[in-house]
Amino acid sequence: MDTQTQPNVRAERLRLLALSPSTVLEAFLDQLNERHPLPAWTLVRGPECGLVMVRGRVGGQGAPFNAGEALVTRACVKMDAGLGCGYVLGEEPRHAELIAVLDALWQKEEFARLLDAELVPDLVARLQARYEDDRSRSAATKVDFFTMVRGEDKD
């Protein structure tokens, strides 16, 4: 199976796009459009907001339970390259549309190479930097608990 059509590759790309700021995606598409005119697209569905049920498991292994609802925005676009879909957590219609456009562009070979070479490394680096920043900020709040041995507790 071609790596461009493997479901897990597409899912990873969509995850990366959903976790990236919409301003970065918009700037990349603007820059790409200056070098290679983008095909026109039409909205097939949305952008529209709705609720999804978030499920969880106690300890990651217990029986699943409904933890609550989360707001999600989705959009689907059609262009000559194909049909693209985008989902993002929260109420962000433009972000969902940008994800859908990039998803559709990935289905066209000439754009897929550009996106894999230019967009993905940038988004991965930004996401890693964000994770490192989160780790360092949470590490600063770490509290080490220890037991002190008092003199009178000796035998």
TrEMBL record:
GO MF assignments: lyase activity
One GO term of the biological process aspect: organic phosphonate metabolic process
InterPro entries xref list: Phosphonate_metab_PhnG
Keywords, ordered alphabetically: Lyase
Source species, domain of life: Bacteria
Protein name, UniProt field: Phosphonate C-P lyase system protein PhnG
